[in-house]
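Quick log. Single chain, no ligands specified.
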Amino acid sequence: MLIPGRLVTAEIDLGLYGKNYRSVRSLLSSKTKLMAVVKGNAYGHGIVRIAKKAEQLGADYLGVICLFEARLIREAGIKLPILLLNYTDEQSLDEALELDLSVNVMDDDILQALSKKAKQKRKTATVHVKIDTGMHRLGVLPKDAVAFVSKVAKAEHSRLEGVFTHFADADNEDLTFTYEQLTVFTEVIAKLSKLGIHPPMIHAANSAATLRIPESHFTMVRPGKILFGPLPNASYTLPFVSESILTLKTKIVQIRRIGRGESVGYGRSFIAKKDMVIAALPIGYADGFRRSPNYGDVLVNGTRAPLVGRVSMDQSSVDITHIPGTEVGDEVILIGKQGSKEITTEEIADRIGTINYEVLTSLAERVQRVYKE
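-> predicted structure:
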């Protein structure tokens, strides 16, 4: 049911999130911990409710990108350990310590600043070190990793809790490069072990690697998108049935008939070649419904209805000429199932030239999230 006052709703099935979570857990050894990654507003699903659900399900850790995300979780009363996966600057360290966050440290300056601030606050900072094994975004280079991790292990007022890396290509059918990264990471871990350094948290596996590469699990895995249902890559078969937990819906607010030669939308990019019946939908690119002319179809009364004209900021139009009996107020599905038909984020991403991550994380704040167990 749509919430009064807003005619666009993302319905989130927390029961399905739990099902996906348990399926991922079943792939892990009893000693392997699970970090539920909830960055990007939990991939568009709502960070606070998803983090609470992950805590209820028994997740060991939460992964976020920035203080803003971590603050929302802590203000909601969630006590799970949280790792800031991204770079944290010196100005953010005070709050990171106050919120009891684990910090990804990748250079001497931040390490020294963190230790100093922890001493001032009479706290012990929890540190993870990211190693760049080939992604070449963030992290300590392998040639410098052993020396830097050793320094972290000896730093006062800091505790080395974890060492991690991130795979660049684990969702590719060809896993050659991923195994090269895994070899580099394993070599660093082995060198640390010889020095008597044994971080309790060693983690590398994202969703794809969690599903496909058991030897990358180490002591913790970091699944993100797979917990929400969409596939990391549609080209390979999952070891379980994953179900998308989000349905994006709206309703028809007006129906009008137009004649041959008349246009729909800005720029008159669509000209009718015949008499048509057009339905207006109260959703646009300000909701995250992309302006791309290739967005494709929506579902109306269990039938696909193509978009016509340009998606504007708050409105869209669809052709319902072929769907007799349609009325104002009828439910419209933009992502999800209706009857025997389904529109997936993978389909949408393919049409507009992106990935399903972007489709989900683009959903705006004004799209109300409605949760069901």
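The longest strand covers residues 331-338.
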